[in-house]
């Protein structure tokens, strides 16, 4: 393939102020509210309304994650910047959410560390592909599933104080850490899938034949 390097400022040459980009960024601004509501509840467990506020904030963040992509396609506002902004905001919010349940709800910290390492590698890969290869790294379904699973994990942990006294005896609902272990499995599969797709592009670009005029190729590699 022909190596076509890009400059960071080229990201800003596309549309910036769009509804979808606003929704992506709004997720990050919801994070401080989520942390504050959770901290208030932990400090005063009798104030269960703050736990509900935290849960609702988390659900709202999930909705914005769905709506930003949907509205970008519906309003024809898709852009290179938006395709990077969405996953970056996802990474900030998911790491923030997992950090909260590690700190307040005893979620296994090693899973959080593994998740952070994976996200750092993802940022490096995405940046390298864009800046050094002129390709926009395309999220796979494993990555999207992982983000959704993080949301389920956080919500599950947050809901435990509300439901545990209603559950009699042994129940899988009392073990939200299960979703964390599934998350690790999904992360491993996702890393393998990304490696399979982009290994030669990163390390052996001369072995890859990419035709910019081929629609299938453009869709697979998101040439920019």
Automatic annotation (TrEMBL):
Reactions the enzyme catalyzes: a CDP-1,2-diacyl-sn-glycerol + sn-glycerol 3-phosphate = a 1,2-diacyl-sn-glycero-3-phospho-(1'-sn-glycero-3'-phosphate) + CMP + H(+)
Keywords: Lipid biosynthesis, Lipid metabolism, Membrane, Phospholipid biosynthesis, Phospholipid metabolism, Transferase, Transmembrane, Transmembrane helix
Membrane topology value: Multi-pass membrane protein
GO molecular function: CDP-diacylglycerol-glycerol-3-phosphate 3-phosphatidyltransferase activity
Statement: the UniProt record of this protein carries the keyword Ribosomal protein: no
Protein EC: 2.7.8.5
GO biological process, one term: glycerophospholipid biosynthetic process
Principal subcellular localization: membrane
Subcellular locations according to the entry: Membrane
Pathway, per record: Phospholipid metabolism; phosphatidylglycerol biosynthesis; phosphatidylglycerol from CDP-diacylglycerol: step 1/2
Membrane-crossing residue ranges in chain numbering: 16-38, 50-67, 107-130, 142-163, 178-195
GO cellular component terms, A-Z: membrane
Family label: Belongs to the CDP-alcohol phosphatidyltransferase class-I family.
Name the UniProt record assigns to this protein: CDP-diacylglycerol--glycerol-3-phosphate 3-phosphatidyltransferase
Taxonomic lineage of the native organism: Bacteria, Pseudomonadati, Spirochaetota, Spirochaetia, Leptospirales
């Amino acid at each position: 393939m022909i190596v076509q390097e890009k400059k960071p400022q080229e990201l800003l040459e596309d549309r910036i102020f769009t509804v979808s980009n606003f929704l992506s960024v709004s997720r990050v601004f919801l994070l401080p509210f989520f942390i504050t509501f959770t901290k208030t509840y932990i400090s005063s467990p009798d104030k269960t309304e703050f736990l509900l506020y935290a849960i609702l904030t988390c659900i709202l963040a999930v909705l914005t994650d769905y709506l930003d992509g949907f509205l970008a396609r519906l309003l024809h506002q898709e852009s290179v910047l938006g395709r990077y902004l969405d996953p970056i905001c996802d990474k900030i919010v998911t790491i923030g959410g997992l950090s909260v349940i590690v700190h307040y709800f005893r979620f296994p910290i090693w899973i959080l560390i593994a998740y952070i390492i994976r996200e750092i590698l993802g940022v490096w890969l995405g940046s390298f592909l864009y800046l050094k290869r002129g390709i926009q790294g395309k999220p796979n379904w494993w990555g999207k599933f992982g983000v959704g699973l993080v949301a389920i994990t956080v919500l599950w942990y947050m809901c435990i104080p509300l439901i545990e006294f209603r559950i009699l005896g042994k129940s899988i609902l009392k073990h939200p850490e299960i979703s964390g272990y599934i998350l690790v499995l999904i992360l491993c599969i996702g890393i393998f899938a990304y490696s399979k797709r982009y290994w030669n592009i990163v390390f052996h670009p001369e072995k890859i034949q990419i035709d910019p005029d081929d629609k299938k190729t453009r869709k697979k590699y998101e040439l920019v």
